[in-house]
Structure formats: C-alpha cells, structure tokens
Specification:
single chain; five-stranded mixed beta sheet; Transferase(Phosphotransferase), domain 1; 33 helices; Phosphorylase Kinase, domain 1
Length: about 850
C-alpha cells in the first residue's frame, strides 16, 4: 500500500511510515499534523481525506492557468497519481472545458516513458478533474535556477529525452504548442517527462482555437505562432531550441535580460550562440541550438528525430569526465564513490600558498573536436614554462584544472588561496590557432591584463613560450633557467598518456597510459616527464595485474626520468612510488621529500603520496598526507574529498561525513559531495539518509553510478521494483559492468520474474568473465560471477568460484559477503554462515545485516553475537 500522507510505499499497515512517520490508521491531525495544516483549504480538500470516493489527497504540488494539481493515492490502482482540478469559475468559457476534454483525448494517443500518461476525466460537485501519472521530482526551470546552468553533457542528456517524448507526440500528428521548462519534469531517477497537453494542437481535433488566436507561453513561442499562424512540428523544435539555450546559459534567449521574447523582435535580430555566455559549450552544440532557432520553419531541423541525431553526435564527440569509483567494503557499493583518486604519491608541505601565487584554469575552446585537447595542452605547456620562475608559486594544473573556464575568477582565487587567476580562450579559425589570455586579481571583477596570440597549429610549443614571457612581464617576475622542451607532437602524445593515467575526460586506463607515454618517448627519448609518467603507469599496471616484469620497467623509467631532469618533482615522485611498493620505505621517503622540496606548494603531490600509501593499506600515513594537502590549500574541496574517501576505507564514518559536508559547503553544485556523503551513510546502514543525497546527485549530474547506488538502496530496503528500475537505468546510461546486471537479476528473482532474472544473470556472468580474461586474479569479478551463478541456479559452479575467490582474498569483507550470498542462495547454510562471519570480522557488518538473501542467517547464534 501507499502512505496516504506522503505517498511512499508502505508495507506494514500496523506500523508507521518510514518516510514521514505517519500512522495511516490515524487522521492527519492525530498523525502529527498540526490542526492548522490545511494547504488545500480553498477547495475544501485536506491531506488524508478522500476525493471522488477513490483518491486520498496527499498534498498540493502545483498550479497553473488551467487548474491546480495535487498528489493523491488512487486506492483502486494502489499507486500515486496527480489530480489536475479546475474550479467552476475557471470554466466560464465553454472553450475551457473543451480544452480540458481535449487534453485527455490527445494525451491518451501518446504512450511513451518520456510523456506524462493521462488516465481519466471526472467531475465531482461541478469540479472537473484529470487523473494522470504522478512524477515525483522537479520541473526543469526549478532545476536550472537551482544550479545556475547545466553542463553541455547534462543538456544533451535532458535534450535527448525531450526529443524522445516529442517524437512520440509528433508521430500522432500532435503539436505540443506549449513546450517550456515548467512543462518538463525530471523525476527522482533522472527521467525526463513532457507534461501538459492543455494547449496541444491536432489539425482534426482543434475546434476551439479561433483563427489568428495566439496560444502558448509568449516567451517560448515560435515566430509563426506569434503571428497567429497554425502551429506545426517545427514550432515545437523552435521551443526546444529556446529550452536548450536556457539550460546551457541559465538565461532566456537571446540572453540580454529584456522581457520582449525573441519571436517578437525585429527579424534582423538573431540569437547569439550559447557559448557567448558559457564558454564550455562546444561549437557543434552552438550550431544545433541556433539551427533550432531559425526564424523560418524550413531552415530548422526537419524533424525532432534529426535534432536527436545531432545531439547524439555532440554526445559522442565530448565524453563526460571519467571517474574512479571506490570498490570493496560494501557489496554493490563497487560503483559507489566518485572519488577522482589518482595513482601516485608524496610528502610534507612547508607552507600555505601566498597571495602572489597564480592558478591556471582549464581553457575554454571553440573549434573542431579533434583539437579540443588544446584546452589542457596549452595550460600544461604554460605550467612547464612558468614553474621555475623565481618568486612565483604556481598552483599545480592537476588541482586548478577542476575549475572550468567559465567559473568566477574570484571564487577560484578564494578556493585555491591565490592572488591571481589566468583564464584563456582558444579558437581555431581557418587553420590558425588563436588564444586570448586574461589575468584576474583576487577580486576577480575585471581583467587586470589581457593579451592575444595568433599562430600556426604546428607552433603551439613556441607560442606557449611567448605567452609565458608576456605573463611574466604582467606579473613583474623574471624568467628562470631555460628548460629543454619536447616537440609539439611529443607533448600531444604525452597529454594523451596523462589523460588516461589521471582519468581526465576519459576512463582511467593504465595500460593505455603506458602505451602513450612510450610513444612520446619514441618521439623524444629525453622527454623526462614522459619517462616519469611511464613509471607511474607501469606501476599501477603492476598493482592491477601483479606481472613481475612491470616492476623492473617502472623502476628503470623512474630512474631515467630522474637522471634526465634532477629538478623535476614528478621524477622523484615516480621513483618514490615504485620504491615504496617494493618495500623500500626509507628510500621512498627520501624521494618524496625531494619532490616536495622542489614543489613545496604542490598539494597534488601530497595527494599522490597519500594514494601510494593507500595502495599498500597504510591508511594512517595516507590520511596524514591528505591532511597536508588540506593544510596547504584549505579552500579546495577536492582535498577534503580525498581524505573523506580514506576515512571511508578505514570505517571512520562520522569523520568522513564531516569531510564530505565540507565538500558540499565548498562545492554545492557538484554531485561528488552528495555521492560520497551518501556512501558514508550507506556504509553505516542509514539508507533513508542516503536516498535523498543520491537523488540530489542525480539531479545535478545524472550518471549510471548514481542509478546503481540507488538500486542498492532500494534492494537493501526490499523495494525490488524500484531497485530493478534503477539498475536498468544504470545499464541504459552505459554502466558496462557485471554489478548492475547482477543487481537486476537479484531484483527480478525477488519479484519472482525468473526468466528475466536468468537473462540478467547471464549478462553479469559474461561481463565478469571478460574481466577475469584480462586479469585472472580479479577476485571481486570472480565473486560477482559466483553470486550470479547462484542466482541462475548453477550452484556447483557458484560454489567453485566463490571458494576460489575467498581463497585469493581471505581478508576482504566484500569477497566474503559475495560468497555468503552465493552459498546461501544455493541453500548451503553452513558455508553461508562461515563466509558471513568472515565478512563481519573484516568489517562488512552492514552488508550481512541488510541483505534480504542473508536474513535467514541472522538467527544463527554466532552471527547474532558478532553483530551485537
């Protein structure tokens, strides 16, 4: 059943609702509502009361020109619905009721997940109402206003779902005619839903619109609608263009703040490109939006399907930043924490950054997609040129890169603790590279210096040197000793390796990083940074695969980097990482100290040192170095995030929560803090606290990982239908991993849908097998396979894989937990108890206590004692 007060699923009619605390057997007042609580008083409706002898009112959720909308529980269907009510005084015009009826007729013709379903039309005491699908979420306007503007990736994701809904509408020869952000909802899973057919147009159904009558919201009308012409599909495409512009820029087109809609302005006035207000918008997305906004319908896209294909191409050409996710302690949390942890090392920090320090932000870029790497390459080249400048402490680009070129310079200066910020804009025009630089002081209100550069593409290294000379002049500093630089081609290949090593805009891949660094060395054998990068990449490969020959190669690469450039901090960092992994702690400490002496203001080095200790399980040392990074740059959110992740690993949940709350204070528009604070609650078994945090993360940045995490929450709380929805959403969003498929199989199995469960388990087994083919020692993949085999009824195979995984990783709570599930599902209680105890001893208490498959073991005396 559903709670009549908040609409949440409610399994026990004798208890209280887990979400709102209400007792469904009591009246609203007795359930804790104050006697004066009456949001529906104007219509005589109160929360908890019945309407039309079928619906139980929950709350008012919105209002508009055609009526008021309430959340209610349909007692007949047992689901939450939305009721749109029109009071009698609003039906004075005959056309109003006719539009109301037509909304039902037209909406029922469209069946699509991205279009709101309308159920029924009714009347109670002269009060007409529509019942429709209830979408639990927020409208697009509220979301954009809350975050300022959406990223290009978010805009494409939302835009494609709008296109899917519009396509279904247009295929029924219907024009929506009132497409706007308030008529687009985003539910708590990230699904986009097109709402409100009250003004929809169908050439055979529209008998209530007078000739020349203008309907729709003025700000989102197409020019032909504003002239009173009949709307057409291209009119919805124009409205879609306005919505895309607003998502990207946070302002209505054309962005000048004037109230006169674009459609009513002079024909000669064109809309500026969104990138004028948000530099991260790629040229392809600029062109797409402006084509939607062509004044003449014939110059727009020919169909919504064409818009969707164009959005798909934009999506393919600009993948979102990669993530490294914390796996291990909690089963199904393998895809949980968006940590951005890098794979290296370092040591003590001497001083905080001073007001004279400089940060280089990631540059903006406009041009062909194949050259977008320049937004990272040029700042890296500038960092290399400037790092040896006397009296100038430069924030490492690895730190400042997390701030996009569009961010407020004053905010960046405050977070990084610097006195000046350099921003750049790159464009490629007619084969020429044009770069505009602007230097801001800590006030950040206007540039204190600017300059522009025009060069051939092949001269990027030389141009960076020229830029560095002018920057030094603007800063009043002199040049340091000249450093030999590699060729432009070598540096481009090096950047490819750096991106793969750190997970910059691509999925982290250490083998690919090593291959790129090797090619950079082939192009220039004396490229010290490439040798250092190769050493780190090879060492991370060794940690993954345990192939002995990689150790010698990594050590040789690090020593070569050090011999080529004794003053290069990265060379000593790489050498220390390999030495620490070999157990040569004293030598590693010496290398780390040298790296910090060469780069005393580099908090990234402290994070790298910490991660090296993490890899060895030396968590106290790791947390100490993360704290050094915080001390060095106390306004930078990512340092708190790294230390919070370290605390999660060691079970210091309250300390981790405090650190992640600090992340949210410093970076409230980022999904990372919400994800990781949710992880801390999940590790403590606090599912109700975790769910809204994950929902917040999903609204900011819809990712497959968050969907997977929500699936875990719902599975642990026995809400199997919602769990299946979230696991499917994670898979549809591109999480190509065994975990969501295994979770989906579990959810289907618990619902009794054996055929679908078998199909999901088969896919999980296939993906886990692929991981094992690459790394036969991947015990987590093997244990995941064991759970999937058990769910599929292949118990002999499951027992074999679970036992082998536990032998390979005897101290892992995750592996023991997976093994306990596999054996218990197959009916082997003795083995299930044994591995459940192993999981609890290793720290997996929450998993054992909350997993539905293991409830049968909780009456075992030994487990009860351990849990107590």
């Amino acid at each position: 059943m559903l709670c009549p007060f908040c609409g949440a699923e409610f399994s026990d009619a004798r208890g209280t609702c887990a979400r709102c605390g209400a007792d469904p057997s009591l009246s609203p007042t007795r359930a804790g509502r104050s006697p004066g609580f009456d949001p529906l008083a104007e219509l005589g409706l109160r929360p908890g009361e019945s309407f039309a002898q079928r619906y139980t009112i929950v709350d008012e959720v919105g209002s508009g020109g055609m009526g008021r909308v309430y959340k209610a529980v349909d007692q007949k269907l047992g689901t939450a619905v939305a009721l749109k009510l029109i009071p009698p005084e609003q039906l004075a015009r005959p056309s109003s009721l006719e539009r109301f009826r037509r909304e039902l007729v037209l909406a029922r013709q469209v069946t699509h997940s991205n279009v709101c379903r309308v159920h029924d039309l009714g009347e109670v005491d002269d009060l007409h109402y529509l019942s429709m699908e209830y979408v639990d979420g927020q409208n697009l306007r509220d979301w954009v206003q809350a975050v300022g503007r959406l990223s290009p990736q978010q805009t494409v994701s939302v835009g494609r779902q709008i296109c899917a809904g519009l396509t279904a509408i247009h295929r029924q020869d219907i024009v929506h005619r009132d497409l706007k952000p308030t008529n687009i909802m985003l539910d708590r899973s990230g699904r986009v839903v097109v709402m409100d057919f009250g003004l929809a147009y169908h050439p055979r159904e529209d008998q209530v619109t007078a000739r020349g009558e203008v309907l729709g919201t003025l700000a989102y009308l197409a020019p032909e609608q504003a002239r009173g012409q009949p709307p057409e599909r291209a009119s919805d495409i124009y409205s879609l263009g306005l919505i895309l512009f607003e998502m990207l820029t946070g302002r209505r087109a054309p962005g000048d703040g004037l109230s006169l809609p674009l459609a009513l302005r002079d024909r000669s006035e064109t809309c500026p490109a969104p990138s004028r207000f948000a530099s991260e918008v790629p040229p392809s997305l600029d062109r797409l939006v402006l084509r939607c906004l062509a004044r003449e319908p014939g110059k727009r896209f020919g169909s919504v399907e064409e818009v969707d294909r164009a959005l798909t191409q934009v999506e393919a050409s600009s993948r979102p930043p990669g993530e490294l996710l914390l796996s291990g302690r909690t089963a199904k949390l393998g895809a949980l924490v968006a940590l951005l942890v890098v794979g290296a090392i370092l040591l003590v920090v001497e001083r905080p950054s001073e007001p004279g320090d400089l940060a280089l932000m990631r540059f903006g870029y406009r041009g062909p997609g194949q050259y977008s790497y320049l937004r990272d390459l040029i700042p890296i080249l500038l960092s290399r040129e400037l790092r040896d400048t006397p009296d100038l402490a430069l924030v490492p680009f690895e730190t400042s890169r997390s701030f996009g070129g569009e961010e407020n310079a004053r905010s960046v200066a405050g977070q990084l603790g610097v006195g000046r910020v350099l921003r750049g804009e790159i464009s490629i025009e007619e084969g020429r590279l044009r770069t505009a630089l602007r230097l801001f002081d800590a006030a950040g209100e206007r540039a204190v210096w600017s300059s522009s550069f025009d060069s051939r593409m092949a001269d990027v290294v030389e141009t960076a040197g020229e830029m560095a000379r002018e920057i030094r002049g603007a800063l009043g500093t002199r040049a340091g000793p000249a450093a030999r630089g590699p060729s432009a081609a070598g540096f481009e290949i090096y950047l490819e390796g750096k991106r793969a090593l750190e997970g910059w805009d691509v999925e982290r891949n250490h083998a690919r990083a090593a291959e790129a660094f090797s090619r950079a060395i082939e192009a220039d054998g004396r490229f010290a940074e490439a040798h250092a990068g190769l050493a780190l990449a090879l060492w991370k490969q060794y940690e993954e695969t345990h192939q002995p020959h990689l150790v010698a190669r990594a050590l040789a690469a690090a020593e070569r980097a050090q011999s080529l450039a004794p003053s290069l901090p990265e060379a000593h960092l790489a050498l220390g990482a390999v030495q620490l992994g070999q157990g040569r702690s004293a030598e590693a400490a010496s290398a780390f100290e040298k790296a910090l002496q060469l780069a005393p203001a580099d908090d990234a080095i402290c994070r790298h040192i910490a991660s090296a200790y993490v890899a060895l399980g030396r968590n106290e040392e790791a947390e100490a170095f993360y704290q050094k990074a915080i001390d060095l740059r106390p306004g930078f959110w990512e340092n708190y995030n790294f230390k919070g992740a370290s605390c999660l690993r060691t079970g210091k949940l309250e300390q981790a929560k405090a650190l992640f709350r600090r992340v949210l204070e410093l970076r409230p528009e980022s999904d990372t803090g919400y994800n990781n604070l949710a992880a801390a609650h999940l590790l403590g078994g606090e599912f109700m606290e975790a769910e809204p945090l994950l929902r917040a993360a999903l609204r900011i940045q819809p990712t497959p990982q968050v969907h997977n995490n929500l699936g875990f929450v719902y599975y642990a709380t026995a809400n199997y239908r919602s769990a299946a929805d979230e696991f499917r959403a994670a898979i549809a969003a591109g999480l190509d991993h065994a975990m969501p498929w295994e979770g989906l199989g579990d959810a289907y199995r618990q619902m009794g849908r054996r055929t679908e469960a078998g199909e999901a388990y088969a896919k999980a087994i296939e993906l886990a097998g692929a991981r094992l083919a690459v790394n036969p020692k991947d015990s987590e993949a093997r244990a995941l396979m064991a759970m999937s085999l058990a769910g599929a009824g292949r118990c002999q195979d499951a027992a074999r894989e679970a036992s082998r995984a536990a032998e390979e990783a005897p101290g892992s709570p995750t592996i023991h937990y997976y093994a306990a599930v596999a054996f218990t599902v197959c009916g082997n209680r003795e083995a299930g108890v044994r591995h459940a105890r192993g999981a609890i001893e290793a720290g997996g208490k929450v998993d054992v206590r909350t997993n539905p498959d293991l409830k049968i073991l909780l009456d075992d005396p030994s487990i009860r004692e351990q849990l107590r």
